[in-house]
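Protocol step 4 of 5: obtain the predicted structure for the target chain.
Materials: sequence only (see below). No template structures provided, no constraints applied. The aim of this step is simply to have a reference model before the mutagenesis design in step 5. Sequence pasted as it appears in the construct record:
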Amino acid sequence: MADLEGVKAEKNYHTGEPFAVKGNFHVKGMANQEWGIKKRLSNIFNPRSGNTVMFAFDHGYFMGSVSGLERLDLLIPRLRDHVDVLMATRGALRTSVQPDCRKAIALRVSAGSSMVNDDLSHETVSVDIEDAVRMNADCMAVQVFIGADGQLESIKNLSTVINAGMRYSIPTLGVVAVGKNMERTDQYFKLATRIIAELGAHIVKTYYCDKFEEVVAACPVPIVVAGGKKLAEKEALEMAYKSIQGGARGLDMGRNIFQSLHPVEMADAVGKIVHRKFTDKEAWEYYNDRVKDK
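Step 4 output (structure tokens):
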């Protein structure tokens, strides 16, 4: 085991320098992956902008019926053409998403206790790789609890999914879940995102924070920022803009889309920031104009 004594604190992230190992592929850190991985990553990340808008509606796997997600069968047809990726459980996909959907699929493959339990960190891998193949998943999503009681279990889950996915060229998305004893600081997110990437995840989903550009620079795979709790639409667009400016390669919005009074218009406004380089002010104006025209 490495000796931790005398390890110096990191200090130089060279945030002004682009990732060096590019090759001819548009997804960060993936130049040396094989064709199948790159094909699926190209389904997720737009080859022109290099970015993605994910729509997460996998909350039901631990929260049950969530405000805004009561009727997936009615919501998903409204939103699917306004995002790049659908992030969901296999149950939601099979029951509520038409198989002619052309959007990329981020399949939730980890599961654990419900929100009734005080500790959500003890998860397990709940989907076999064969089922991910049958569902034509473009990536598999695993929750990783760094700094929580279930840390070792979730790291094992992540490794298991990565190993299985590599046999079938399916990328893995590691989702940072903040341990209840950890603060949402740049130091924590540098630790969590780097661990997940070093274990072999192809994409990392995390939260925006101060010094976010340093978190991005230290992570050798693309970071997608989670929308998190419901914010006012203007605040959510500000967070989206700061995330992209800080180096994120996409947003994974859930509640900030499906709990919005105007979810389609909100998804489109986020897309303008992610793919069209709109500022938060331009996106806010676009959102309001769309709402007025309804």
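Step 4 remarks: The chain has a mean pLDDT of 92. The first strand starts at residue 52 and ends at 56.
Proceed to step 5.
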